[in-house]
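All the exercises in this workshop are built on plain-text protein records. The record below serves as our worked example for the rest of this section.
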Amino acid sequence: MEKTIHLTWQKTLSILVMLVFSQQIYAIMPPQIPLEDFFRNPEKSAYQISPDGKFISFMAPYESRMNIFVQKTGSDKATRLTSETDRDIAGYYWANADRILFLKDSGGDENFALYGVDKDGKNSKCLTCFEGVRTQIIDELEDQPDFVIIGLNQRNAMVFDPYRLNIKTGEKEMLAENPGNIQGWMTDHEGKLRIAIAIVDGVNTQLLYRDDESQEFEPVLTTSFKESLSPNFFTFDNKHLYATSNLGRDKSAAVIFDPKTAKETEVLYENEDFDVGGISYSRKRKVITAASYTSWKRERHFFDDEARTMFEKLESLLSGYEIAITASDKAEENYIIRTYSDRSMGAYYLYDKTKEKLTKIQDVSPWLDEDQMAEVKPIQYRSRDGLVIHGYLTLPKGVEAKNLPVVVNPHGGPWARDNWGFNPEVQFLANRGFAVLQMNFRGSTGYGKAFWEASFKEWGLSMQNDITDGVYWLIREGIADKDRVAIYGASYGGYATLQGLVVTPTLYAAGVDYVGVSNLFTFMQTIPPYWKPMLDMMYEMVGNPEANKQQFEATSPAMNADKIIAPLFVAQGANDPRVNIAESDQIVEAMRTRGIEVEYMVKDNEGHGFRNEENRFDFYRAMEAFLKNHLLN
């Protein structure tokens, strides 16, 4: 009897412990957050400050489209300057203390036109509204308030000519005629066009230079495109260049380059593990301030004590958040500061450097509680041929990391990379109970020349293996339920989704392809005209449709759709200039012909990714239902 009572109390105690433990787990599991809260337009974003420091500008929704607003510094009353209702404004900046310039395209065609508007909303004018023409900003000309230097492919759709544009009248003056191979232009600190970057022989990069605008450009350095010297800006005497360079080294370093001798005169900073991505400077004090690189987070190497002290002060005031300076007035006394983290879209602040005063302006997404968001943790694993692959793993909050449904999310580009920070897609999926794996497969930028080159002609081959090896790693670790793994990606990530379903058909329970390539032959035929000067380079990096015909046939998912057995969801913008709608049409037709389940969403007013808020809602709502149906039911 005593033994029976003892066992009963043990059992009762066990049940109580389980109940308490369950309540604790339940308490830390976040509620299901409305989908719209992840993908709605920010309440206010893209804050900037006028050159005189008297006004603050920002973007905010007007009739569900992001428009520009302005308010006096220190005031809460804002004036809306623009009334765009068909398309979000893509970006803007203060041209001078009284006028703002902004870019906008039509229906996602990426033919951006430049507009101007006064800070009181008057004198709105389109400055470059030409049919089928794309506008680039080459130099904002901070010291020439009525002018800007732009690039237009108006004369020839394949190349951009530089113009000095009067932002009041719209009159423009061509500064040089692009001979057909110039891919970039750069000015000195006086706004003089002094540098050009060209592609020669299809695969070589050439730096051209001139002492002043009365001279012709002369080539000073020619290298294979696999090597890179990227001018950031001129030294402050306008004689040499601050640049990032991987000439003769694997990792890009911050250097000073003499364009007359074509030699690096000084290595300012290099990191043995990661590429230096850029150099920043103080325009007022005429000093370089820092070099930046990305390990698993953005990091800085400071050259300037004043800049270091300012960042240390900001970090002490904004502990726990990443910090970015997004704008300043011309006097460099007032700064716009943006914070963020893996669990927060962050906030904007106004920082008075003289007074060391920090004033919060606005939370970017006050409706999201960062305590309910999931942590994004850096991970690494080895590929089957021995490369170290870096990435990020996000686990649903409050759930044991064991036998979880997983969404594998390869990035686009492909010559880009995933970064640590707030990703609304990742947080949305984690909130719905999915673990999310992101990986910087070979070819991802920031890890050096050799890692980048390892991707050449490896679309669908070793690049795909890097993704697959990440899935196997998750399964071996016991984190992933091998029967509940989906793959989702956009652009190149969409291609990787389709190819994953082809080459490892039983690995994935479902796939979501968002504006992805499906046929390498047709993809190469439909690239935008301004990519065509780089076509030989693309042939070397991706492959040549003729010389690599058999490889293209083997690695084009639309031509191998008979191997796909997992259900698929495809989303596409009808006006996509980079990945033509025919790419999605092909894979959908191939799947439907075989009777394999495929859902297809096309938005007629979108391009390479959905910018309009209501279209984002539709896409993620459909994706959620699709993943839930195939991974959770």
Observations:
- The first helix runs from residue 2 to 28.
- The chain has twelve helices and 35 strands.
